[in-house]
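Reviewer 2 asked us to include a model.

Predict the structure of this chain.
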Amino acid sequence: MASWFLNNKKSWFICIFTFVIAAVSYWFLPDRIPMHFNSQGIADSYSGKVEIFLMPVIQAVLIFFSGRKKVKDWFLSMPPFADEVKYYLLVFAVTAMLLAGELTILV
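Predicted model (structure tokens):
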């Protein structure tokens, strides 16, 4: 269990950082925030400001399940992810991408 956490330590840090950003910015957001933009850059979908916590929750679920043995073994059986370094790099990259998505929404 400890090695699972240590291997995902960077991903957990990004997840916690994303949650802190969401918690701090929650109080400064309007009641409705844009969540999707069309090709002209105009917001075409809005949601409540509580949905800013969606990214940290997705990150936490992703990191939690990526450390489970069955999920990890399934990914490691695929040729592109045949070693643990690539596997944890993929988890880190997806977590960082979700952080970038949240920052895009906030800025």
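The radius of gyration is 16 Å. Strands lie at 32-37, 43-48. We have added this to the supplementary material.
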